[in-house]
Structure formats: structure tokens, C-alpha cells
Design goal:
Elements: H1 16-37, H2 40-61, H3 68-75, H4 84-102, H5 110-120, E1 139-142, E2 148-152, H6 160-177, H7 182-196, H8 203-217, H9 228-234, H10 236-247, H11 258-282, H12 289-297, H13 306-312, H14 318-330, E3 334-337, E4 344-347
Antiparallel strand pairs: 1-2, 3-4
Length: 351
């Protein structure tokens, strides 16, 4: 059985890259309260946007999709799900809301992980919600020629309940001793969870929900305002590469979690930098809509869409942003390309 002794990392000497990530994220955590106190009404819009993006992106990674407008309507409780995918999207939204609203009251225990999984599938026809896997699962990969092979074999079903219990217990022990930084412990916990792969379905989505929960409980609340799931979805090839590298030798305790730690810390740092940028833009309440949109446009390189501007200008309505973008197109500041849902823009003043 895998050994989940997180206290072994107390005297671990991490490389300069990891130390640098941890130091910078600590600095952003120190500024977090000042960020959230600026224009709380406008930051509420950032929370709404992040919830929609998180729900869409985390499910999209697993091939669970619907249209952008449907995801938004589901997240805003303005429609009921029509398809199997939409039912699972709605379940993710519900669990995400629970974490946002009650994270401080949720312990890291096997029973709560099972309850999250049950809620994830509560609208689904599948009868697997809230139950550990009953058949052996495999993590496979597809070659360029289309053939597939088994990349990793998770724990057997009969080993899973005890493994999750021990995973939670050892994590809580290490966290309580405050001798290993939570920013190190959290990625290792998620890596171990994914290597156990405790469920017949929903392991990836559960891992991302648990990532948010653990970060919130450790005081890193950036995921409320910037979608960490979206950051992962945009870099999922690197995510899978880091996971693969860090899982080699996992069963006999010889694996090295460094790659996955670096990947996750990079994602968290990117989220904090985006948060700071959007707080600054949201604080520009005395500026005209035109100037706010222009400042947002100046942060883009390459193509961008209207929804990207909406993220950066949460205090402006979509109608105002659309009208302002049209004005910038007429002034030749930006160029509009594509059509309808595929519409995007590029800045004309890029070098």
C-alpha cells in the first residue's frame, strides 16, 4: 500500500523555482485583503464570472460540454439541464457553490469527499455518485497512430477506501504541525488523489474542486475571483505532462512530485497576477467606459473576444462593452475578425 507520510517533506530541500513561486504567492496572499476591499460590488461580478468559467472549464477538460450561453444560464439558475452533460455541469456548479460559501466548515475527510461526489452526480442518470469505484480503472493515453496504451494503473477498488482515509489523515496531521507549507502539501495531496483515482467517473473534476477547497482553507482565495480551472484547461497538455512525470514510481513511493508542484504553483501565481490586474481595472470607477475598455484592450496580445473584455471590466454591462468595441473598430484601434460566435479582435497598434 502507498505510504502517505507527508511529514517526510519537512526537511525537503526544494529548488529555487519552487521557493520563488511560494515566496511570490505569499506576497500576493498578503495583498489579498486589500484587493478584496476595493470596490466589493464590482468584485462580486468577478466572482460570478469565475464561477461560470470554472464550471465550464473543469467539465470541458473531461469532454463534458454545452454552449457558452447554456453554461451561463445553468450557472445563473435560469434554466434546467436538457442533456446528460448539462446535468453533470449543474452538479459541478452546486458543489462549487458549497465550497465558495462554506469552505471553512468542511473538514478534509473521506465522508465529505464522498458527499461532494454524490452531489456532483445528483442530477445524472448514473448511479455512481457518492460511491468509491467498484471496478479497476486505468489512465490510458492515445498514440499518434490512434492506438492507446495504459499509462498508469491506479489503486485497486478494494484498496481505495482505506487509501482515501489515510490520505486525508496524513494530510491533516502534516497541516496541523505547520512545518510544511500548505502550498507544497496541497499539490501533493491532489497528485495522490489522482493516482488513487477513487471513483468510476469524476476524478478529474473532484480533484479541481478539492484544489479550491484546500486553497481556500489555507487562506488562498484567489480562485473565487479568477478561475483556476480555466487556467488549467488552457494549459491542460502541461497539466497532463506534469501529472505523468510526477506519478512515475508512485506505487512504491519513489515518485518525485516536483513537476506537479511547479505546475500547480505556476497556475496559482498566474491567477493572482490576473486578479491584481483586474482589481486595478475595476478600481478605475472614475474613468469613462471608453477609457476602461481601452485600458483592458492594452493588456491583450494577439486575438481576444468580447468575453475577455467583460472579464476585465466587470463594472460595465455587455451592451456598453459591445458598443465601445464597435467605436474602437471604427477608429481603427482594433480590427474585428470572424463572424457571430467566432468573432474575435486584434489590436492594430501592436509592434
Amino acid at each position: 500500500m502507498k505510504n502517505f507520510n507527508y511529514l517526510q517533506y519537512i526537511n525537503k530541500a526544494w529548488d529555487n523555482e519552487i521557493i520563488g513561486y511560494v515566496s511570490l504567492i505569499h506576497e500576493f496572499k498578503g495583498k489579498q485583503e486589500s484587493f478584496t476591499m476595493k470596490n466589493p460590488v464590482k468584485l462580486k461580478k468577478l466572482v460570478e464570472i469565475a464561477k461560470i468559467q470554472s464550471t465550464e472549464a473543469s467539465n470541458k477538460i473531461e469532454g463534458i460540454v454545452t454552449t457558452n450561453s447554456r453554461v451561463k444560464q445553468i450557472c445563473e439558475n435560469r434554466t434546467m439541464p436538457k442533456t446528460r452533460d448539462e446535468k453533470e455541469i449543474l452538479g459541478y456548479r452546486d458543489v462549487l457553490n458549497i465550497i465558495h460559501e462554506s469552505f471553512q466548515y468542511i473538514p478534509i475527510k473521506s465522508s465529505y469527499i464522498l458527499q461532494f461526489h454524490k452531489d456532483l452526480f445528483k442530477y445524472s442518470e448514473k448511479s455512481i455518485g457518492g460511491k468509491f469505484k467498484n471496478t479497476q480503472n486505468y489512465i490510458s493515453e492515445t498514440r499518434e497512430d490512434g492506438s492507446s496504451f495504459i499509462r498508469f494503473q491506479p489503486l485497486k477498488p478494494f484498496e481505495t477506501p482505506e487509501a482515501i482515509d489515510r490520505l486525508c489523515e496524513e494530510f491533516n496531521i502534516a497541516l496541523s504541525k505547520s512545518e510544511v507549507d500548505p502550498l507544497i502539501l496541497i499539490p501533493i495531496f491532489i497528485l495522490d488523489f489522482l493516482c488513487i483515482h477513487p471513483f468510476n467517473d469524476g476524478n478529474g473534476r473532484m480533484s479541481r474542486l478539492l484544489t479550491l477547497l484546500l486553497l481556500y482553507k489555507a487562506g488562498y482565495e484567489v480562485g473565487k475571483y479568477i478561475s483556476i480551472e480555466k487556467e488549467i484547461e488552457l494549459t491542460k497538455d502541461f497539466y497532463y505532462d506534469a501529472l505523468q512525470t510526477s506519478s512515475i514510481g508512485w506505487h512504491n513511493d519513489t515518485n518525485n512530485p516536483t513537476s506537479f508542484i511547479k505546475y500547480m504553483l505556476g497556475i496559482i501565481l498566474k491567477a493572482y497576477r490576473d486578479f491584481e490586474e483586474r482589481v486595478q481595472i475595476a478600481s478605475e470607477n472614475k474613468l469613462s467606459a471608453t477609457k476602461q475598455v481601452q485600458n483592458a484592450l492594452n493588456t491583450f496580445f494577439g486575438r481576444f473576444q468580447k468575453k475577455d473584455v467583460v472579464e476585465r471590466c466587470p463594472n460595465l454591462s455587455e451592451t456598453t462593452i459591445e458598443r465601445t468595441l464597435k467605436q474602437f473598430v471604427e477608429k481603427n484601434y482594433i480590427t474585428k475578425l470572424g463572424d457571430r460566435k467566432n468573432t474575435f479582435y486584434i489590436r492594430n497598434n501592436e509592434d
